[in-house]
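Q: Structure tokens for this one, please.
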Amino acid sequence: SLVFVMDGDVRSITVPGGILGASFTIAGDLGQLTVGNKKDTGSASTSISSSTFAIDGNLGRVRVNQSLTDQSVIEAGGDIGQILIKKSMINSTVRAGGDIQLLQVDGSIYSMAQVGEDGSMTLEAGGDVKKIQVKKNIGDAIVNISGDLGLLKTGEDLLNIKLWTSNLHNGLIGDDLNGSVFDIGQRVGKLQAREVSGLTLRVSETLGSFLVKEDVTGSMLSVFSRLDKVKIGGDLHRSLILGGVDIGPDWLHNTADDTDTGEIWIDQVSVGKDMTDTSIVAGIKANGEYFGDGDDTRTGQDGKGTARIHKINVKGQISSSGVAGESY
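A: Here is the predicted structure, written as tokens:
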């Protein structure tokens, strides 16, 4: 294990090979960190592995020509400019006390967690994150951003992640969005994917557009004050679109931390094929697991307010599977 302690600013650190089992502590800013070289053909020895970079100030730019892996940590007390990883980010953490301009990974972001365990890949920012761009998959990750996330973009799947941010301006998922929780403190501009399954989307104010090319299954969209557009190209199955109720930080419907409002607007929901075992609701509390079973009540103080759904267009059939005790 190698330990480096630097008392002041560091202009650059360049390592032609890799970094394994090292610890760097920098009392000031770090301008640039470069590990490996552009001619690397895939040697893991030119990755950052089992290493820590702790910068008290700002971090300008990191370029890793292979992977960031094996519980490595890159953290700055201030802002981070760019982190560019040519291969993958595995079981590692990037953390900033302030803003992050860009995290770009040309491979995938994932952890080695066992099935059913939370992932150990972590991204944290005390301020805003402008862009997260991943050419392949993001899986088993925890992303916690105190400010806004400008762009979240993957070339392939986004699987089993937990995301907290104040505002998500654009979420562009190249393929499937599965088994994930998005907890948005204010507004989502646009979230799109090819197919969605097992998604919980909590939006504490407004959802601009939710666009899915194929099917949505086993998912919940909880939007507190306004939902402008949901467009699903395939089937909508065993899901809930819930307007006027905030499901709270436990991410469960009809529990003690839910809050509600009587003022909710759902503009349009479009389903290209069939809608089965699904409820689309504005300004109604279920007071149980299901809607339409006789114990529903209005949201808002004393049931007062204006709850509206402007348009629902289902091109296929609307149906229920008729399971005993269920109601939609």
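A few notes: The longest strand covers residues 158-173. The chain is about 0% helix and 55% strand.
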